[in-house]
Amino acid sequence: MKHLLKILIIMILTSISCTNSKNNTENTMDENVIRVASPGMHIMFSKANSEGKLEGYDIDVWEEIGRRLGKKIEWTQISMEGAFGSLESGKVDTVTQQISITPSRFEKYIFSEPYFLSPYKFFVASTNDSINKLEDMYGKKLGFHTGSYAHEYMKALDPEGKIEIVSFSPDSVATVPINVANGKIDAALEAVIIFPNLKESTGLDIKMVGDVVFTEVNAFPFRKDEKGKKLCDEVSKTIIEMREDGTLEKLAIKWFGYNPMEGLDVNAELEKLLSTF
User: Fold this and answer.
1) Global pTM?
2) In what order do the strands lie in the sheet with 164-168?
3) Lower CB count within 10 Å: N or C terminus of the chain?
């Protein structure tokens, strides 16, 4: 009986030792891996190519972050909703695809140092010369797709709701520029950097007009826990280094042909954005 009890104790201790060894190995592996989720549906930023491999500005930024931190980037391609769900559940460490800081996201996540700034303007039918600034849209129709972060920006810029928002479901978002061109809605918003591709790919008779309506501040979201904050701090420090040594500009020129952030001040744009929350 004593002999049997001794064997059982040895088996339990061995099991605990193996489990601890496995957990320590997994923790070490986790520390050397950054799990990044992306829908891979955004041209020039994060898009799956014909071979199914993610490529774009965001992808190159993350691979460089990984290289500098000595960590492997583990990619997961998933819908935006699923990506944020995976972040919240701890299945991934962050999400990328030109993620914009918005009031609702700012409440839920810790954001890294911004890595990209993207000015937005109105675009209208080429025959429309009546819109050049925000106030020109009062009493007129502005098209968005449902769930767009731009809703939050416009709510802050137009708190009295003087602009009529016309929402389009995600599966019909491609019809927004068509509705602008045929006059069913007066205008829509698009990133200055994306508009030339939109105009060329659709062949529509549309134009971008007026002043910058808002500047999208892009950063990487992390969970509000100890691990999320630690990783966010490491990534933020690396982004600052990449900005100061010209790496972000070099990658921007590679993917966009020029640096869209030239002349823009990251801190000023972030402060301006946060003041609207």
Assistant:
1) 0.80
2) 164-168, 141-145, 187-191, 116-125, 206-218
3) N
